[in-house]
Amino acid sequence: xxxxxTKQKLVVIGNGMAGIRTVEALLERAPDLYDITVFGSEPYxxxxxxxxxxxxxxxxxxxxxxxxxxxxxxxxxxxxxxxxTISMIDRRTCEVVTEAGERVPYDRLLIATxxxxxxLPLPGKELPGVIGFRDIYDVDRMIKASTDYRNAVVIxxxxxxxxxxxxxxxxxxxxTVVHLLDTLMERQLDPVAGGLLRKSLExxxxxxxxxxxxxxxxxxxRVTGVRFGDGTELAADLVVMAVGIRPNFELAKKAGxxxxxxxVVSDTMQTYDGRIYAVGECVQHRRQTYxxxxxxxxxxxxxxxxxxxxxxxxxxxxVTSTKLKVTGIDLFSAGDFAPGPDKEEIVLQDANRGVYxxxxxKDKKIVGAVLYGDTIDGPWYFQHLRDGTDVSHMRERLVFxxxxxxxxxxxxxxxxxxxxxxxxxxxxxxxxxxxxVKAISEKKLFTLDDVRAHTKASSSCGSCTGLVEQVLAFxxxxxxxxxxxxxxxxxxxxHSHDDVRRVIxxxxxxxIPAVMRFMEWKTLNGCHSCRPALNYxxxxxxxxxYRDDQQSRFINERVHAxxxxxxxxxxxxxxxxxxxxxxxxxxxxxxxxxxxxxxxxVTGGQRIDLLGVKKEDLPAVWADLNDAGxxxxxxxxxGLRTVKTCVGSEWCRxxxxxxxxxxxxLEKFMWGSWTPAKVKLGVSGCPRNCAEATCKDVGVVCVDSxxxxxxxxxxxxxxxxTEYLAKVETEDETLEVIVALTQLYREEGxxxxxxxxxxxxxxxxxxxxxxxxDIANRKALFARFAHSQQFAQTDPWAERASRGVDRNEFAxxxxxxxx
Amino acid sequence: xxxxxxxxxxxxIPRLGSRVVRTPGGNIAVFRTESDEVFxxxxxxxxKGGPLSQGIVHNKRVTCPLHNFVIELANGQAVAPDEGCxxxxxxxxxxxxxxxxxxxxxxxx
Lengths: 819, 109
Ligand SMILES: Cc1cc2nc3c(=O)[nH]c(=O)nc-3n(C[C@H](O)[C@H](O)[C@H](O)COP(=O)(O)OP(=O)(O)OC[C@H]3O[C@@H](n4cnc5c(N)ncnc54)[C@H](O)[C@@H]3O)c2cc1C
Ligand code: SF4
Ligand code: SF4
Ligand code: FES
Known about the structure:
Number of strands of chain A: 39
Oligomer: heterodimer
Strand content of chain A: 15-25%
Helix content of chain B: under 10%
Radius of gyration of chain B: 13 Å
Number of helices of chain A: 25
Largest sheet of chain A: 5 strands, parallel
Strand order of the largest sheet of chain A: 3-2-1-7-19
Strand content of chain B: 35-45%
Largest interface: A-B, 30 and 40 residues
Bound molecules: flavin-adenine dinucleotide, iron/sulfur cluster, FE2/S2 (inorganic) cluster
Strand order of the largest sheet of chain B: 2-3-4-8
C-alpha cells in the first residue's frame, strides 16, 4: 500500500465546480493514487454556482446549494485549504506559492480557477455598490443592498444579467436593465423570442433601457447613478455588471504556460507543461472557451481519466444549450440560429398562448432551436441536433415536437411538476418520478448521465430521455443544461468508436473479451452491434495476429453467402472486372441445374447471382465453382465487393485507357480485404462513364492524359456523386492512391460507416492531404494494406469446400425422425 | 412424461453459437452460451420466421439475422420494444452430451 509519504502529490488550484468534479471522478477511478490538496479563495466547500440565481431570488438558501461539505473532504483524505489563494506557480521547483508565501510541492497540478466577471472600464467602477455576479460574496452584498436601498441598475441583458435583475426585483428593488443591443440575450435568442421575453419581464415590473451605452458611473463615496451615451442619467444605489466573463488565467500566464483567451489545453486537458492540467472556464480548448457546466463536466471526466493514468479518454469539445432560470418563464435555446442562405427555418408563433418556436435546419439536420413559452421539446430537439439526425421524414410535424410524432416518449404532458411521484418515467427500468427526484436531490446530480448512472432511468431504450430531462430541470429549478455527449458505439458501452479504436492500439488489446474488460463493457458478451464492430477493429488493427471470431460475424460473413428472406442463401462468384468466359458460364449453368437453384440473376455490379441455395448445399456448390476456377465474390462482405468496368480502349471507339485491365488489376490486388462497410469500385474508359464510376465508393475516370480518381459516392439509400480526389498519370499510381485511400478508411472508419460518411466526418481536404499530397504517408498506407492482404487473400469458399473449415456450420447437428 | 433424446456432443456447438436439429415438425435451433448452458428453440423468429440459429448470440439472447429482433433464449420472448414469442424445448447437458426433449410439436410452417 502506498502511504501518504510515497504517494504522488496532486495540488488543485480552485475549489469550484470543475475542479472538484475532476477530483470526484478521479477518486472513483483511482482512490489511492494521490495525496490531494485543494486551494480555494472562497471560504466554503464546493457549491453549486449555477444556483446562486435562485438564492438571490430567495427560492433557495446557501446551505441548499452546497455540493461538497467539509466532511466530504475529510472522509476522502483531501486537504482543503479554503480561503487561501495561490499567487504563483513555480514550475522550476514544481511548487505553488500561497499569498502568505508558503510553498507547497506538487507532482501533478490541476488549475481550475474559473473566470471573473468583466468589469467595464468606466469611470466610477471602483465605487462601493458596483459589483459583479459570480459568487456567494456577491450575492450576500446584493441581498444586503436590497434591504438598505431601492434602485438597482443591471448592466447587461444576457442570461446572467436577467437572472440578477429578476432576483433583485423579487427582493423588492426597482430594477432597470441596460443593454447595449436591442435584443435581449442576443447570443441565445432571435429578435422575436427576445421581444417576447422582454414583454413578459416588463409585465413583471422590470424596466429596460436599450439599446443604450453606459458612459459613467456616478457618485462620491457610493454609487448614486449611471450616465448614458445620450447624456441621460438614472439614479442607482446598486449597479450589477453582468456583461460577460473573462477566463481567469493570470496565474497560469505568469508561470509561462501558453494562454490565449484561456489556458490552452490539448484533448487530454493538459497544458503545455505535461505535469499541469487545467479544466473549467479558465481553459481554451480547440479555440473554444465555455461558460456552462455541462462541457466542464465532460472535461473533468477526461482529465480524471488521465490523472488516474488510464490514459485513453479525449475531449472533443461540446455543443451546449441554454435555459433561463427565471421561474415562470420558459425559454430554451441551442445551436446556431443566425439566418443564412443555406439554412431553412420552421417557425410556429401562437401569440395567444405566448408560444414561439423556431427550428433551423441545414442539410436536413437541426442546427439550431429557439423555444419560448413551450420548451418541453427542447431536450428532444437538442438530442437530434447533437446526433445530427436527418429529420426530413418528420419535417412537416417537427415544430409540434416529439409528442406529435409518437416518438421520444414526451407524452404531450405539459409539466412533470403535475405528475405524481408514482408516475413511471422510465418503462424499461421501472423507475418512477419520485425515485428520480430523490436521487437528484440526495446525491446532488445534475446531468442526464448522472441520473442514468444512479437510477438507470433512460439508460436503456432512451425514449424517456426527454421526460428525465424535464424532471431534472424541474427538480433543480430549471438550472440545468443537457449534458453534451459523444455518441457511444452501442448501448453496451459509453465509449465512442474512435475511443475504442484508439485504445485497441494504445493498449495492444488483441481479443474481444480483452477490449470489453479494459473498457468496462456494460454487458457480458456485447450484442449484435458491438461484437461485429470489435471483430472488425481487431482484424484491421492486428493483421495476421488476430483470429477472426466467427461467432461475432454477421451470418453472411460467417457462411460467406447472403441470407435471403426464406433462410436460403445466394452465391455470387467473383468475375474479375466483370469479365467472364464461356467455360465459367458453363460451370455456373451446370451448378444451377445440379442443385436446383431456382433463380439466376445478373447483378448491378456485373456479376451473376445464384439465388435460393440451401445452406447445406453451399460447400458442394462452392466446390464445383472452385473446380471451374472461380472464387468467392464477397458479395456478402463488409469488404471489397465488385469492380465494375467498361470495355475501354480495347474495344470502344471512345476509350482512352484500358479500363477493363485496370479494373481487373485493382480487383486482384484488393479482393479479400475487410473494410468498415462495403466498398465498390468502378472504372470508366472515358468521361462518358459507362461504368457509372462517379457514384461508387471509389471511381476512376480515364482521360487521354491519365486517370482521374474520385471517391465517396453512393447509390443506395442515399444517392451521392463522388468527390474528386486526384489526377495521376500511370496505372501504378492509380493503384497506389486507391489502395492508400482504402487503407486510411480501414484504419479510421467507424464500423458500418460507408466511405462517403467517413469523408463527410473527416473532411475531404484531410484525406487528400494524407493520401495524395503526403507521398511518404501514401506509401506507408499502401505497405500496410499490402501486408494485411497476405493474410486476407485466401478463398473462403475453397477453405470450406475442400479443406473442411467450419464443417459443423453447414450440417445439422442431428436429424430426428419422430417429433 | 418427458422423454430425452440424445442429439450430439456439446463441443459440436460453438460457444456463443448454435446448431440446427431437423425434425419432421421443423428445425430446432440449439444454442450454447459462453458458460456452456444450452437452450433449444424453434428455428423461427416470431417476426417473419427468420432462422434464429443463424443469429449472433450474446449472453442468453440471440439476435435474428433478418431484422434484428432480440429473443431471450430461456423463454423465447422477444425483448421489448419488439413483441412475440418462439416455442422453447427443454434441453440439458450431461457429461458433455446434449439432450433435447420435444415437449410439443414444433410449429409447422
Ligand atoms: C449566477 C450564475 C448562474 C449560472 N447559471 C448557469 C446555468 O444555469 N447553467 C450552467 O451550465 N452554468 C451556469 N453558470 C456558470 C457555471 O456556474 C460555471 O460555468 C461553473 O461554475 C464554472 O466552474 P469552474 O470550476 O470553471 O469555475 P468556478 O466554479 O468559478 O470555480 C473556480 C474557483 O477557483 C477559485 N480560485 C480562482 N483563482 C484562485 C487562486 N489563485 N487560488 C485559489 N482559488 C482560486 C475561485 O474562487 C472559485 O471558487 C452560472 C454562473 C453564475 C455565476
Ligand atoms: S466509358 Fe467511355 S470508354 Fe468506356 S465504354 Fe463508355 S464510352 Fe467507351
Ligand atoms: S433493393 Fe431492397 S429488396 Fe431489392 S435487393 Fe436491395 S434490399 Fe432487397
Ligand atoms: S424475421 Fe426475425 S427479425 Fe424479422
